[in-house]
Amino acid sequence: MKNRKMLASSLLAGALLSVGYVASKPTAVHALTDMSVKDTQNPLKITLIQTDGSYTVDTLLVDLQRSSTTTDNTALDFDLVNEDTGALASSSFFGRFRGSNRIKEGINILLVKDGNYHLDIYSSGDFGKRYFGRSEVFRISRGEYSPIKNVEISTATETPKQTTNSSSAQTGWSGSSYYKAGVKVVNQWIFDVQYNSYFYLNASGNFVQNAWSGNYYLKSGGYMAKS
Question: pTM to 2 decimals?
C-alpha cells in the first residue's frame, strides 16, 4: 500500500445503503486520531449535552449547528460508530434544519453496547457532500453518555501502527491485505481515513482493483471511484 494518493472523496461509514448489516454495505474502519471534516461544503458543529439523567433517559442529546446562511431543508442522517472496532452501532434519520441553523435532537442509546464512540451527521442525499460533521470521542456505559477527558483521549487514541504480520494484533495494512486487531479482513468493505477511500478485500484478503464489486468500481490501488 505504498505511494498511495488520496484520490477518493470522503464517503461516510455505513452510509452507502440503508440501515442494517448487509453484504454489500461497507464496514467502517476509522483512524482514531482523525477528527477533521473533509470534502464537505458545509461543516457541521456537533455538541453533545451531558444531563443529570432527569431530562432524558437512555438518550444522547445532540446540539447541531451549521455556519451556512442558506435556508435549505436538507435531510440529515446519523451514524453512531464504535471508535475501537469501527462497528456501526446505530444509523438512522436525524432531522432537518427547516430554515434554522440549529437543531437539537435526541438519539436513543438504550441498546448500544458499552464502549467509546463518535457520531457522524451528514446530508443523506449525497452522503455528506453538502453537510458533514463528526463529534469528539465519547463514552457510552449502561445506556448513558459521558464525555472523555483529554488525558483519556490522548492515551486511547494513539495512532495505530501498520501491521507487518497477522500475529501482531494490530490494525492496518500489510502489503495488499488489511488486518483488524491482528485478523486479516476478507470479503468485506473497509473505509480507511488515511487514504480517504473505501476498499474491498476479497476472499483471499487482498484489495480488489481495476474491477467492479457490486455496484462500485475499484480503481488501480483499490480506491473506490468517485460517484
Answer: 0.52
